[in-house]
Design goal:
With about 450 residues, the protein is an alpha+beta fold. Helix content is about 35%, strand content about 20%. Strand 1 and strand 2 form a beta hairpin. It is globular. It starts with a helix and ends with a helix. It binds ligand BES and manganese (II) ion (MN) (2 copies).
Length: about 450
């Protein structure tokens, strides 16, 4: 039996197996789901053992476990490390889901569930490609280690330490990741860049207590007004960040890069329509695709304070709060950007108010070398499987550990993603086209052969 025949024959079993792990609500950001996170890790360990990987192990970290397994019998051949994550984002607002998020449901040729595309579906596609290779060929074309973590959606706080503590085990010639999306349906896409990230929380205080707005209004500072004015001043009217030093180190794209980006399929009007907005925003000198992938941003993610209960309340709030994240591009340093933002907010706050900025997680931006052997092997395998030439695109999302692999292991990373542009990752009704799942398994099987033959 050929590899493709084995995949075809296993299709319904493979789908049922994916549904099993999708049923486990392994939300890393909500502490009540700690047991579910553990269950997902154990499920993966058992699954990896069952398909013929060796030494499948749930390994504790300071927070959520990492699951590892390996197949290292191809002596002299290069070794790849497959990375993915089994944790998922929260599901609220639950009311907007057509079917329950943790009851994977097939509809219109897609599988709907939280994690179907980000990232359990893509992780399982990898494991099922391995399962069929082992079943049909008795082994793998090269040596493979698998590392699936449970903290990606909260910024991978334990993973850098895990890699440092397990440097020998983690060492590989190449890192392979499927945790990104395709630019359009049927267009194989290799992600060649990720933005970095820095998180902040802003806490602003005015008077020593909330105040009656009739007795004090007009003379007492209002924390909400102070905060919204302060935050409004970080952008000009055209989406540029006005904070001094924010853009320091940003590498401007060359005209060649801009030409290549302009050739990628991206329709601004259709993009706006999909979002339900009649106008896109941002730096006028960059295309929308450039703005969402190779330009840095500062976004308010949440803003709170004052009275939010039922009915009116004539009050002057004395506290206001905001959550902010910046997306970063090469060569911005997250700690430095966080520092200039914090510095600006503390300097620009007017008299009558005090502001404190707490720094959260950071991730560095990353870029790939499109000419590397593993990227070229991926191009080849994807083109053969999809019958279309592959697109190489930098993307705006972040996967914190990718830059860490680069820095600590010195190994090239290949990001072959199979989620759809309309997969709704992190949103209600997340889904993965069943066709993407099937093509991913086939393409990944081809990729291991291609890379095994080419070498790294
Ligand atoms: N898989 C995504 C990242 C992604 C998706 C990159 C599509 C490029 C294209 C990942 O799970 C994710 O959501 N990352 C978070 C990281 C954050 C929580 C530290 C992100 O980008 O917001
Ligand atoms: Mn992901
Ligand atoms: Mn995600």
């Amino acid at each position: 039996m050929t590899f493709d025949e084995h995949l075809a024959q296993s299709d319904s079993t493979y789908l049922e197996q994916l549904k099993e792990i999708l049923a486990i609500p392994s939300i890393s950001g909500i502490s009540e789901h700690r047991d579910d996170v553990q269950r997902a890790a154990s499920w993966l360990r058992d699954y990896m053992e069952a398909i013929g990987l060796e030494r499948a192990t749930v390994r504790p970290t300071a927070k959520n476990p990492v699951v590892t397994a390996e197949w290292l019998q191809r002596r002299g051949a290069p070794t790849a490390l497959i990375y993915g994550h089994y944790d998922v984002q929260p599901v609220d607002p639950l009311a907007l889901w057509t079917t329950p998020p943790f009851q994977a449901t097939e509809r219109d040729g897609r599988l709907y569930a939280r994690g179907s595309s980000d990232d359990k579906g893509q992780v399982i596609a990898h494991l099922q490609a391995i399962a069929s290779l082992i079943a049909v060929e008795g082994g793998l074309p090269m040596n493979i280690k698998v590392l699936i973590e449970g903290e990606e959606e909260i910024g991978s706080p334990s993973l850098e330490q895990f890699i440092k503590d397990n440097k020998d085990w983690t060492q590989a010639d190449v890192v392979v990741i499927s945790d990104t999306s395709m630019m359009e349906h049927g267009l194989p896409t290799i992600c060649c860049g990720l933005r970095g990230l820095c998180e902040m929380e802003v806490h602003l205080e005015t008077a020593n207590t909330d105040l009656h707005s009739g007795l004090y209004g007009g003379a007492a500072p209002n924390a909400l007004h102070v905060l919204v004015q302060l935050l409004a001043s970080v952008r000009d009217g055209q989406g540029r960040i006005t904070i001094p030093g924010f853009y320091d180190g940003v590498v401007e794209p060359t005209s060649e890069e801009r030409k290549q980006m302009a050739a990628l399929p991206f329709d601004e009007e259709e993009f706006a329509q999909r979002l339900g907005v009649d106008q896109l925003v941002g730096e006028p000198e960059f295309t929308a695709l450039e703005r969402i992938s190779i330009r840095p941003t500062l976004e308010l993610n949440g803003l709170w304070g004052g009275f939010q209960g039922e009915g009116p309340k004539t009050v002057i709030p004395n506290e206001a709060h905001a959550k902010i994240t910046c997306r970063l591009v090469p060569e911005q340093e997250p700690e430095r950007v966080a520092a200039v933002v914090a510095e600006y907010l503390t300097q620009a706050v007017p008299a009558g108010a005090r502001v404190r900025v707490d720094l959260g997680h950071v991730a560095r931006p990353w870029r790939c070398d499109p000419a590397s052997a593993p990227v070229q092997a991926a191009v080849q395998a994807l083109e053969q499987s999809f019958g279309r030439s592959a697109a190489l695109a930098r993307m705006g999302g972040s996967i914190p550990v990718v830059e860490v692999f680069d820095r600590l292991l010195g190994a090239p990373c290949v990001l072959m993603g199979f989620a759809a542009p309309d997969s709704n990752a992190h949103a209600p009704n997340e889904s993965l086209p069943l066709e993407s799942l099937r093509i991913a398994r086939r393409a990944l099987g081809r990729f291991w052969h291609e890379l095994g033959e080419r070498g790294v």
